Amino acid sequence: MYVLTFTGSDATSEMTLTSTGNESNRMIGIENQLKLILRDLKAIQFEIKDMKTAISNIDTHVKLLTDQMMLRSDTGSVPMPIVSDNNSFQLPANTMAEFIAIDKACTNEASRSHLVHVLYLCGGEGPRDAVQIMMKKLMAKNLCLQ
């Protein structure tokens, strides 16, 4: 008769196999097989830990990219508040009055540099694409059609 005791956690694993009879040769074979299985389990635990770390890193990068895409807002459908000192306005401008307010706010150096930075983050495949994306960021479609 054999008694197998297995205790383990993520960090450590222990296996004890004891024999209550005279079958010591058979016992050694089983013990070696169980040790191999335990070694493989430890390797799998290590790989799972590495995968969890990689997934955590990917999640961090996805959050950063999502934040950047919210800044980009190519469609212009998501208003983005621009606040600098005492001047605040939202992009895209829906009316001519809002567009003029943005223009007046850009007389302030801090507001202008912040707006330039926001438009710089829009990106684009080429000059034409970049300008189109920036225009969508600045003006809503109904304002462009006026």
Structural overview:
With 146 residues, the protein is α+β, with helices and mostly antiparallel strands. The protein folds into 2 domains: 2-66, no CATH class; 73-144, no CATH class. It is built from 5 helices and 4 strands. Strands 1-2 form a two-stranded antiparallel sheet. The chain has a two-stranded antiparallel ribbon with strand order 3-4. The longest helix is centred in the N-terminal third of the chain and has 49 residues, at 24-72. The relative contact order is 0.09.
- Report helical residue fraction: 55-70%
Spatial shape:
rod-shaped
Radius of gyration: 32 Å
- Could you name the ranges where pLDDT drops below 50 across 5 or more consecutive residues? 73-79
Query: How would you sum up the major sheet?
Result: 2 strands, antiparallel
Ends distance: 91 Å
Strand content: 15-25%
* Quaternary form: single chain
Number of DSSP strand runs: 4
The total tally of domains equals 2
Q: How would you summarize the topology of this molecule?
A:
Layout: E1 2-8, E2 13-19, H1 24-72, E3 80-84, E4 87-91, H2 96-105, H3 109-120, H4 127-138, H5 141-144
Describe the structure concisely for a colleague.
This protein has 146 residues and is of the alpha+beta class. It has helices at 24-72, 96-105, 109-120, 127-138, 141-144; strands at 2-8, 13-19, 80-84, 87-91. The chain folds into 2 domains: 2-66, no CATH class; 73-144, no CATH class.
Features:
alpha+beta; two-stranded antiparallel ribbon; 5 helices; 4 strands; 16% strand
